[in-house]
Amino acid sequence: MSERIRCTPLGGLGEIGRNMLVVEDDQDIVIIDCGVMFPENEMLGVDLVIPDVSYLATRLDRIRGIILTHGHEDHVGALPYILPQLNFPPLWATPLTAGLIAGKLKEHRQTDRVSLNRIVPGEAVKFGRFIAEFFHVCHSIPDGVGVALETPAGTIVHTGDFKFDHTPVDGRPTDFGKLAEVGKKGVLCLFSDSTHADRPGHTPSERVIDTAFEQIFASAKGRIIIATFASLISRVQQVIDAAVRHNRRVGIVGRSMVQNVAIAQELGYLTAPAGVLFRPDELAMVNAMPGKD
Q1: Rounded distance, CA 50 to CA 81, Å?
Q2: Which residue has the higher pLDDT, 100 or 206?
Q3: Is the pLDDT confidence value at 90 over 90?
Q4: Smaller CB count within 10 Å for the chain: N or C?
Q5: Cβ contacts of 40 within 8 Å, gap of 6 or more
Q6: Domain over 208-284 is classified CATH 3.40.50.10710
Q7: Partners of 37 in the beta sheet?
Q8: Dmax (CA) of the chain
């Protein structure tokens, strides 16, 4: 009798956000990602939308772990709300992703209840009868990975969010060599990021933003206010680099932004010369100074 594998998306299929995929056979379950979705305009009073995991309620003893492909909210943001429902299975993520997750777990007082394991591209981890091998993919946040999941029925590839950017901000393009290697071995099923795949053309490199920043920083006489998601670490690095080139300082504002920047700096994924970054309380002091525009 041939082996059978069931793949069940609990979110992220045909929508932007709430990414969560369940891969299982009759013995083991591996979950890939656990994200939130931000509400549509008509969802009044709703802050976040999370996956419905009632499907897993009778399968908890078979869950071997959750793999997190990268640190964006639509892939990790639901963890504090979903983990208690799944009896806190072990988590597996790259160092930056794990650092961002650790901050969430601490905020929700779940740190001591979760086994958070760090992995690196090229590493393989056994989940019951499944073996997950991780490969680097380029994305707008560093440390993203895809997963080649070896199952009794064949290899399932989950790309995570990716971009074929040959000049990424962190200097690490997608590992095409590993993709070719996995493809040559044979793939049973591919789950691929397809955001905007129905649009003609191609997505430019993140480096094009450097040109826009250069123009703005060169022409602006006063302060420059830049809004971005707190998890877009690469974008923050581009802002810092532009500020350094134009002898400016950068104030980091917002609880999540402050926390994520601190984590990224601590882990070496974000660099800034001494004195370039300043705290929100220092910003308040600057605002209060007389004669300042």
Answers
A1: 8
A2: 100
A3: yes
A4: N
A5: none
A6: yes
A7: 49
A8: 81
Copy the structure tokens of residue 5: 């594998």
Q: How far apart are CA 22 and CA 20, in angstroms?
A: 7
The C-alpha atoms of residue 150 and residue 284 are separated, in whole angstroms, by 53
The pLDDT, as a whole number, for residue 170 is 82
List of residues 6+ apart from 198 with CB closer than 8 A: none
SS3 158: strand
Alpha-carbon span 96 to 169, nearest angstrom: 15
Residues in Cβ contact with 24 at an 8 Å cutoff, skipping those fewer than 6 apart: 5, 6, 7, 8, 30, 59, 62
Going by the DSSP 8-state scheme, the letter that residue 147 receives in this structure is E
| Residue 262, H or E segment | helix 255-267
b or e along 9-21 (b: 16 or more beta carbons within 10 Å of the residue's beta carbon)?
A: bbbbeeeebbbbb
Tell me the pLDDT tens digit for each residue of 107-135: 999 999 999 999 999 999 999 999 999 99
Q: Provide the CA 54 distance to its chain's centre, in angstroms.
A: 24
* Order of strands, sheet of 189-191, starting from the edge strand that comes earlier in the sequence: 124-127, 130-136, 145-151, 154-158, 189-191
In the predicted structure, residue 28 carries a pLDDT above the cut 90: yes
Boundaries of every domain in the chain:
6-191, 208-284
- Share the mean pLDDT of the chain: 91
pLDDT tens-digit series, residues 31-77: 999 999 988 888 888 889 999 999 999 999 999 999 999 999 999 99
Q: What strands lie across the sheet with 91-93, from one edge to the other? A: 6-11, 20-24, 29-32, 63-67, 91-93, 116-118
Domain 6-191 CATH (choose: 3.40.50.620, 2.40.100.10, 2.60.40.10, 3.60.15.10): 3.60.15.10
Encoded tokens for 106: 């601490």
Question: What are the backbone angles phi and psi of residue 157, rounded to the nearest 5°?
Answer: -110, 125
Q: Which residue, 281, 273, 223, is CA-closest to 252?
A: 281
